[in-house]
Design brief:
Blueprint lengths: L2 H25 L8 H57 L8 H22 L4
Helix pairs in contact: 1-2, 2-3
Keywords: Membrane, Transmembrane, Transmembrane helix
Length: about 130
């Protein structure tokens, strides 16, 4: 379990405990007690807080997975672009025919494009 998952689990446990405390306070009040309505509101507020937090947990986990996937795609694209540049060196030094560039250039451009997509999607470019 990651540290972020552990933190979310600890926060859920804390919110559940707060709800349990509010519910116990409500249980100690009789039906006619003057503070019962306020305590019921406190129980509902604690419940709403817990449910709102739990509803956001899948979105947070998905965002973490997207960041990791984005980084993998960025690194793979950069590695592909670098490999294509290395393959261009013999062509530029006339050790290989320029016809090899027909295969190398489109793949290098695809690697650059693939590597720049996460950068463009994050908005870090300007």
């Amino acid at each position: 379990m990651s540290k972020a998952d552990e933190a979310e689990t600890a926060e859920v446990a804390r919110l559940q405990e707060a709800l349990r405390e509010q519910h116990d306070k409500l249980g100690r009040l009789a039906d006619g007690d003057p503070g019962r309505a306020e305590q019921m509101s406190a129980v509902f507020a604690a419940t709403t807080t817990l449910l709102a937090f739990e509803a956001k947990v899948p979105q947070r986990r998905a965002a973490r997975h997207r960041r990791i996937s984005s980084l993998v795609v960025f690194v793979a694209g950069g590695a592909a672009a670098a490999a294509m540049l290395v393959e261009l060196a013999p062509i530029l030094t006339d050790r290989l025919s320029w016809w090899y560039a027909i295969a190398v250039l489109p793949l290098g451009l695809a690697g650059v494009a693939l590597g720049s997509v996460p950068w463009i999607m994050r908005g870090d470019h300007g």
